[in-house]
Amino acid sequence: MADITLALFERAIKTTATTVLRNEHYFSDLDGLAGDGDFGTSLATGFRVIDADLPTIDKSAIGAMLLKISMLCSKHVGGSSGPIWGTGFMKAAMVSKGKESVTLTELAEMIQSAVDGIMARGGAKLGDKTLLDALIPIAETLNAAAASGTTDHAAVLKNCADVAEKAIDETRTLVAHRGRASQVGERSANTPDPGIVAIATILQDWCKEWGIARTPTVAELLQATA
Question: Most buried pick, 8, 61, 62, 118, via CB within 10 A?
Fold first, then answer.
């Protein structure tokens, strides 16, 4: 399969904005189970701006587009999500600077750089019950796929969606150690993390956008993609 082009990145961002805006209230409801209930609204506020500005954003290179999205996230996404999502896009932009397309290996490097940046910015790690519990397995999946030399990008995307959905259930019983949910202690156990659900929902919607057959099974993901 050909490299991953700037046009595909733009399409993925557009699909992400649609996902976030559709689930604004649902993601906030999930956040309200253990957090302050504003995650969906905070994320949607930023992606509403991104969606409106996307047609005129600099698309001279993937990095230029992602850097502008990083800036919009940092400025318009509320709460702790703004710096986290902004950092992720910024780090991915740095790896793709000047590129009009990337290989699967370069995409894996972009996601790994985003993960490393988010970990450094927020201080969270695997098992702290944050969106990193979805992003780290996604990065590992991409790194393994790149190392294998596969050209089946559709299968890689499906595998990434699989591990993101798996993270919802794998972290459900954990006590949150970062973010607002960590302030309620044991009450955060037996609740889904909205950031993890958001990442899994975005990847599921990407599968649908690109015609990749995949049926979710976790209740939160079924509701978010209904």
Answer: 62
pLDDT confidence tier of residue 35, bands split at 50, 70 and 90: confident
DSSP state of 185: G
Residue 97 tokens read as: 């600077």
Nearest 5°: the CA angle 143, 69, 22 is 90
Measured distance CA(150)–CA(41) in Å, rounded: 38
189: domain range? Answer: 4-224
226 Cβ neighbours under 8 A, 6+ residues apart: none
Compute the distance between CA of residue 198 and CA of residue 113 in angstroms, rounded to an integer: 20
pLDDT of residue 144: 98
Structurally, how many domains does the chain consist of?
1
Are 179 and 35 spatial neighbours (Cβ–Cβ below 8 Å)? Answer: yes
CATH for 140: 1.25.40.340
E strands, the chain, in order: 4-5, 101-102
CA distances in angstroms from 4 to 120, 143, 204, listed in the order given: 27, 15, 18
Cβ(36)–Cβ(59) under 8 Å? no
